[in-house]
Amino acid sequence: MRIVHLAGLAALLSVASFFGPPEITVRAVQATVAGPAFELDVKHHTEHNDVTVLGRAEGVRAGKRVSFPLTITRQRGNLYAVTKQWESGSPWVLLFAVEQGKNGAHGFAEGIVSINAAGVVEKIEYVRPSIHDGERVVSRTSRAKVDASLKALGVSFSP
Fold first, then answer.
1. Total structural domains in the chain?
2. Residue 101's pLDDT band (cuts 50, 70, 90)
3. Pairwise CA distance, residues 25 & 139, whole Å
4. Across the strands, what pairs with 60?
5. Alpha helical stretches, state H, the chain
6. Is 106 among the domain residues?
């Protein structure tokens, strides 16, 4: 009897892992002139054509906040590459996201990378869902969070 319950539980967990929000893992890699600076390992529970992988760089130029999209290239399967597209010599916060469905209607995940002025990755954080009143709650990375990450890297700027 216990074996039947364990088998049922295993099947339920297997089905649960098929559904749910996507996941993203960001890895810094040795960048070459034409090679990637980061690899994104994206796990999702839908068809590839229903998944969007996005990235943007957030920084400061001449004392003003700037933001621009990053080009991300699919390598194979769930692996994507990002080459260095931001200037050296100043801190940057890179945001990477995977969305399931249009505008993330079926879930999304984000990775936030803080890079210091020397080009060293200081920190990689992930947006994780929280549970509130039994419901999964996930909010996108706010501008205030990005501003705080830039300030933690020693950047000062005017809004």
1. 1
2. confident
3. 18
4. 65
5. 2-18, 143-152
6. yes
